[in-house]
Design a protein that fits this description.
It is built from 7 helices and 17 strands. It has about 280 residues and is an alpha+beta fold. It has one domain. It has an 8-stranded antiparallel beta sheet, with no helix packed on it. It is globular.
Length: about 280
């Protein structure tokens, strides 16, 4: 099944990038917009300017529609699936599943930073623009690419696939901030052929189809670290997926207005940093 999902995702990515003849392309894009309820009035460009489905997926949103709020901000346009406290070294309440920090981050030393911390879990559906933005000012000093499966991260996947978020491919970005280290985890899924890291001008993808055996976790230290600011574009999913943000203990106070399964827009405030003494 894992191999099938990788081939399916490769095929979906290929088809999404095809520049179909104009009449076919217009019909395809219009059908997709209607099917998923995409709000094209928010896009920087009109529908007819996109040459492929992938260009539509990674459309930019008009900047004036995404003002940057106070404190910690949402890193995506998406659905806030879950949020809360980390119970010791486990995230116990992500849609009823439990994940150890060590498994999720694939690094015991890094995992220890987030014991008794807090988390946010966002889902990007096909209707959302597929960019990921920084939730806070800081410096990215490391990223880790963890190969894995490409199960769907929609409601079906969360309910049916055991330990979904630790078996799927993901990229862990570590940001040094005023409140300690923040982990921004980009999780791949079915139809996500690649994850683009804008701050490095690099595309990260699993080599499963080219080298199914011997895939290894890749840890990269950035020297010097890359400075980022709140709501700055950090990455792009080529199709769609999920993002989890982890904070250290006593680093953030979430907004009382946050609600599970609510729509969020990147740049809107989701909490306030608790400054370290």
């Amino acid at each position: 099944m894992n191999l099938l999902l990788h081939y399916l995702s490769w095929l979906s990515g290929f088809l999404a990038g095809v520049k179909w003849p104009a009449p076919v392309r217009r019909l395809l894009l219009k059908c997709f917009v209607r099917l998923y309820g995409i709000e094209m009035q928010e896009a920087e460009k009109p529908l007819e300017s996109y040459n492929s489905l992938n260009q539509l997926f990674i459309r930019d949103i008009r900047a004036e529609l995404r003002p940057t709020g106070e404190g910690i901000v949402a890193p995506v346009d998406g659905v806030l699936r879950d949020f809360g406290k980390i119970d010791g070294d486990h995230i116990n309440s992500i849609k009823g599943q439990s994940y150890s920090l060590k498994e999720f981050l694939a690094d015991q030393h890094v995992a220890e930073r987030f014991i008794d911390g807090n988390y946010l879990y966002f889902y990007l559906s096909p209707r959302h623009a597929h960019h990921i933005f920084s939730p806070i000012d800081g410096r990215i000093y490391s990223y880790t690419h963890i190969p894995g499966a490409l199960w769907p991260v929609n409601s079906w996947g969360v309910e049916k696939v055991a330990r979904l978020l630790v078996v799927n491919e993901r990229v862990v970005n570590l940001i040094d901030t005023e409140v300690g280290v923040v982990a921004l985890v980009m999780i791949a899924a079915t139809n996500v052929g690649k994850i683009e890291l804008h701050y490095l001008k690099k595309i990260v993808r699993d080599k499963f189809l080219l080298r199914p055996a011997g895939r290894k976790i890749e840890r990269i230290a950035l020297e010097p670290p890359v400075k980022v600011i709140r709501a700055e574009k950090l990455g792009t999913f080529h199709l769609g997926s999920a993002v989890v943000v982890l904070f250290e203990k006593n680093a953030v106070s979430f907004s009382e207005s946050l609600q599970r399964e609510s729509e969020v827009k990147y740049g809107e405030s989701v909490g306030l940093p608790l400054r370290r003494e």
